[in-house]
Structures are given as C-alpha cells and as structure tokens.
Amino acid sequence: MRAALLLTLLALAGCRDREAVPRAHGVFLPVVVQSSAHGRNVWTTEVTLTNPGTTDLSVRAGRWPPRDAASELSEIAVPAGATVSVPLLVPMLPSVSSLTLDSEAPFEARATIRGRRRDGSLLPPLTVPAVPGTALARSGETLRAGPFVRDGRE
Questions:
Q1: What percent of the chain is helix, strand and coil (3-state, nearest 5)?
Q2: Distances (CA, A) of 86 to 74, 99, 104, 147
Q3: Mean pLDDT of 63-86
Q4: What's the pTM value of the predicted model, to 2 decimals?
Q5: Angle at CA 79, nearest 5°, toward 61 and 30?
C-alpha cells in the first residue's frame, strides 16, 4: 500500500506544470504585432536571431504573457554564424504581444515591424528595442517613485 501511494505521489509530482527555468542569456521584445484586418494597413513583425559564436545553439522563444506556458514555448536551432527567422507565436487576429528569448550562449535578436498601406505601398519600418533579461524587474523587486506632487513639506 505504501509503495502504491509513493508511486502515485511521484507520478503526480512529475506531471505538474513547471515554469521554464531562465537561461544565462535572455532578451525581451516588448512589442510583436500581427494585423491583417480587411481594409486596414497590414502590420507584421519580423524577428531574427543571429548566432555570433562558433558552435550551434538553441534559443527558447515564448509569448508573453503566456496563456499556456507549456504550449507557447518553442526551441529554435541557430547554427554557428547564421541568422534565422523566429515564428511569431501571435494569433493571426489583430493583436499585440511580446516575446521572451533565452539561451545558454550569447545571441543577437532583432525585431522590425513592417507595414503596408491599403494601396500596397510600404510604410517606414519600426525597430523594436531588445531589452536584456537582466534589465527586467524580478518578482519581489520594488521601485519607489515620487513624490509626484510638491506640497512644500519636503
């Protein structure tokens, strides 16, 4: 009986959802756009990864905020010295999202939003800043701001 209970507990522990452990090198792309509504300007984001190293690497990409973290993560293989495109992981409906990218080795990420007017002419491209993972706030961190109003009591 004890063995069956122990086996059941171990099986349940192995099946529970786990958050992905952050890797050493991470980047956050704050805006990823996909819009193709009829009669409107078409906007799409092109995201590329470049491996400046001499060995192949694997970059984990995930949509933020995730609806289901397990199904919205994907591993992207980037050969040494190559540049590859990243699938957007954003619904085809007009939507705005963000991407998190991380890897065990350094990599470069670029994102550009490209637009096309209804008449087919191109709009000027917009570069999305890649925010290093170390610059993001972590759970439990606080930022004190203020005072916002000067009342003479300082």
A1: 10, 40, 45
A2: 10, 10, 17, 43
A3: 83
A4: 0.68
A5: 25
